[in-house]
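Let us practice reading a record.
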Amino acid sequence: MQKRLILIGLALIAMSCTNNATKTSKDESKDKKVEETKSIWTTYSKAALDKAKKENKYILMDFTGSDWCGWCIKLDKEVFSKPEFITYATNNLVCIEVDFPSKKKLSPEQKKINDKLAQDYGVRGFPTIYILKPDGKTVAGKTGYQAGGSAAYVKHLQDIIKKAK
């Protein structure tokens, strides 16, 4: 009887370790996905504009309320965090986030830059997406949330860029 209890105890410990390993693996995969998504985004800066010009890439400027705007969160979840978009953006775009969060604190400098950009581009709602030509000055198009997922959104962006060429 005592051997049986020990064996059951060891089996439960082994299952617990396996379950924790699975959770850790899933968590690591989720963390990697979040890092990939974050790595394609930057804030508005001369360096970002110079990169677009040097690499002849269009600029996607996402005016967002990242932590409060339902449509912004939906766009991020359905499009910006998906492999199809990440691959397309990495190869073809410089992605600039112009954020207006409610919980996350921006530096006073960044807040000032974001406010000026929103004023300059006449942003009245979120999300507002501007596509700029590689020169960083010429607007190629304006859009927002589009239903259909990441593949459809990439096609939508390609259409905007194609018309602008």
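A brief commentary: The domain at 35-164 is CATH 3.40.30.10 (Glutaredoxin).
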